[in-house]
Write a structure and sequence with these properties.
This protein has 124 residues and is mostly helical. It has 2 domains: 1-42; 61-124. The protein has 4 helices and no strands. The chain has helices at residues 2-20, 22-58, 62-87, 91-123. The chain is elongated and about 65 Å long. The protein starts with a helix and ends with a helix.
């Protein structure tokens, strides 16, 4: 609820400021997004802690969990970056960011895919 309230307040302020100074409205929106991300960093740390616990207790390999976490991080950063580009009326740049994010996510998951291939060839 706090995040939603902060986002709505920042959006209203950005709309009001954009009428007078469009560039300041964009800066306000970016700063509000950064503050919201900082506020959510505790939750993200808890998720990483849970993944570490799964590795430790569940006997999962770090080679399995790490690519999943990297891919999730890439997805979050890509989505935020693309949305900011769209807000700045740069749709082409947003598409390029999304394409780059997809490519980087595929690269991040390659070690996991290699481990699956090795496991399958070991079973055959």
């Amino acid at each position: 609820m706090k995040v939603a309230a902060a986002a709505l307040a920042a959006a209203v302020c950005a709309v009001v400021v954009r009428k007078q100074a469009p560039e300041l409205g964009m800066v306000l929106a970016v700063c509000a997004g950064a503050v919201i991300l900082l506020y959510c960093s505790g939750a993200l740390r808890a998720a990483v802690g849970l993944m570490d616990k799964l590795v430790e207790v569940g006997g999962l390999s770090a080679q399995v969990v790490e690519p999943v976490m990297k891919t999730a991080g890439i997805a979050i950063v890509t989505r935020l970056s693309a949305d900011f580009c769209r807000d700045a009326k740069e749709g082409g740049l947003a598409s390029a960011v999304e394409l780059a994010g997809t490519a980087l996510a595929l690269v991040a998951v390659l070690p996991l895919m290699s481990a699956v291939i090795e496991m399958l060839t070991g079973l055959i």
